[in-house]
């Protein structure tokens, strides 16, 4: 084996660059695991450990950004709606009813956006998809192993490691309820069946795209698709199953859009509009029967009562809201006594749009709608427009260009019953897609999706 001293300077530079990309990919995977599995990190290390790890990851991502100096980065190319939303979160300290908590919430939003900015500009599309897929494998796989360990070796419900067991335990506090051998619903390392189910949905999207694009081996792709289906079956969250239906509809229309020329897409849009006009009132009229199929009550497990309480509070400050906090600080008013479920105050509105209205008012809702809507618009055309490097060039469609659209549709549908899109993994994905769909126009190779080599296959010569 040759020593480093025997290599010429050019070879050393190439080796250094390859090792840097390897380190950046590993950092991206850890960042995704930390953000998407934030509940698991807190259950293991508590809030102090979670905050410390977050600060370390922010520092490392800033290092990656400064080390690579991405040529496509320009401050003015970041979506203005993203700037406006972050700015509104920050300046809401001025009129907030809980200024210290708003400062903390704005800082958390800014730190998560810094992670998203670094990942959006430093990672290529193939690297981003691979990092997200690897992170999901860890989170889904470890969730099944965790539940199996609890059922086999512990044999009873457990609380997070940092929490002392109170005299009366709320059902919402259990990390695992030891339900694996009973068929679920399991909660995994995240301690939430809804959150684990949503990760399973993301897994179906990412692993399906990787399998279709031949960026992973068929056996590996089919195995992880099966694990995603298993996790979805063992969690069975109604909101995630509904999101899956919307994702499949979006996929169908995207594939339809790829088969017709841009000037011939009017029938497709008319069909989509007709389905929306008919299905929305039908779903509302049949909501009791539909929810009954999933074993849910007509009040959406108490969500309607939460929405009523939030709406009443938001109407008191409708224009600019009460001040940004993201997760509700349930130790201060008005959140302390706003709504209690199973003996605990709820930490969010269970609807991202209501949460934005409550915290940032109508102004915040308009800006947030622009951010989500414009990102969806760009994602849609990235999915259906034929890639080209110059006018007249014909390149094959790539499965990977469907990822922004399908992930964003899943986030939007989830935002109707959860507020996860406003924080941690949800906000990280939204901010990454908002920036990357606007600034990274890289097209696939002439053969479609490029196979992504495994870490061990990255050339160092």
Tell me about this structure.
The protein has about 450 residues and is mostly helical. About 60% of the residues lie in helices and about 0% in strands. It has helices at about 10-35, 40-70, 80-90, 100-120, 125-155, 195-210, 220-235, 240-260, 265-285, 285-295, 305-315, 350-385, 405-415, 425-440, and strands at about 340, 345. Strands 1-2 form a two-stranded antiparallel ribbon. A hairpin with a 2-residue loop joins strand 1 (about 340) and strand 2. Helix 4 (about 100-120) packs across helix 14 (about 425-440), helix 5 (about 125-155) packs across helix 7 (about 220-235) and helix 6 (about 195-210) runs parallel beside helix 8.
List the helices and strands and how they pair.
Layout: H1 9-36, H2 38-68, H3 80-91, H4 99-122, H5 125-154, H6 193-212, H7 218-235, H8 238-259, H9 266-285, H10 287-293, H11 303-314, E1 340-341, E2 344-345, H12 352-384, H13 403-414, H14 424-439
């Amino acid at each position: 084996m040759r020593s480093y001293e025997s290599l010429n300077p050019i070879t050393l530079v190439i080796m250094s660059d390859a090792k840097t990309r390897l380190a950046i990919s590993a950092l991206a995977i850890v960042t995704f695991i930390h953000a998407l599995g934030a509940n698991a990190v807190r259950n293991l290390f508590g809030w102090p450990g979670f905050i410390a790890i977050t600060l370390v990851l922010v520092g490392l991502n800033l290092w990656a950004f400064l080390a690579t100096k991405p040529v496509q980065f320009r401050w003015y190319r970041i979506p203005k709606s993203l700037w406006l939303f972050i700015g509104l979160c920050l300046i809401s300290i001025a009129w907030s009813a809980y200024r210290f908590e708003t400062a903390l919430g704005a800082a958390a939003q800014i730190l998560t956006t810094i992670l998203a900015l670094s990942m959006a500009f430093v990672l290529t599309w193939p690297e981003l998809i691979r990092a997200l897929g690897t992170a999901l494998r860890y989170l889904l796989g470890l969730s099944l192993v965790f539940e199996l360990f609890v059922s086999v070796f512990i044999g009873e419900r457990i609380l997070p490691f940092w929490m002392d067991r109170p005299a009366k335990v709320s059902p919402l506090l259990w990390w695992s309820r030891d339900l694996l051998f009973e068929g679920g619903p399991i909660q995994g390392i995240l301690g939430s069946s809804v959150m684990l189910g949503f990760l399973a949905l993301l897994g179906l999207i990412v692993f399906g795209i990787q399998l279709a694009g031949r960026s992973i081996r068929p056996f590996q792709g089919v195995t992880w698709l099966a694990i995603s289906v298993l996790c979805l079956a063992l969690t069975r969250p109604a909101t995630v199953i509904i999101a899956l239906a919307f994702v499949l509809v979006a996929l169908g229309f995207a594939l339809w859009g790829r088969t017709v020329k841009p000037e011939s897409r009017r029938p497709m849009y008319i069909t989509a509009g007709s389905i929306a006009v008919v299905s929305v009132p039908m779903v509302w009229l049949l909501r009791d029967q539909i929810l009954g199929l999933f074993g849910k009550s007509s009040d959406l497990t108490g969500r309607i009562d939460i929405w009523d309480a939030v709406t009443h509070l938001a109407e008191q400050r409708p224009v600019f809201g009460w001040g940004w906090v993201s997760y509700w600080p349930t130790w201060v008013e008005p959140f302390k006594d706003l709504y209690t479920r199973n003996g605990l105050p709820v930490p969010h509105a269970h609807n991202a749009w209501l949460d934005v209205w409550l915290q940032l008012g109508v102004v915040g809702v308009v800006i947030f709608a622009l951010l989500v809507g414009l990102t969806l618009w760009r994602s849609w055309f990235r999915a259906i427009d034929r890639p080209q490097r110059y006018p007249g060039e014909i390149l094959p469609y790539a499965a990977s260009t469907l990822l922004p659209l399908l992930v964003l549709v899943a986030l939007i549908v989830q935002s109707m019953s959860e507020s996860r899109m406003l924080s941690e993994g949800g906000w990280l994905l939204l901010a990454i897609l908002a920036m990357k769909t606007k600034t990274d126009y890289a097209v696939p190779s002439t053969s479609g999706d490029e196979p992504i080599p495994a870490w061990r296959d990255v050339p160092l010569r």
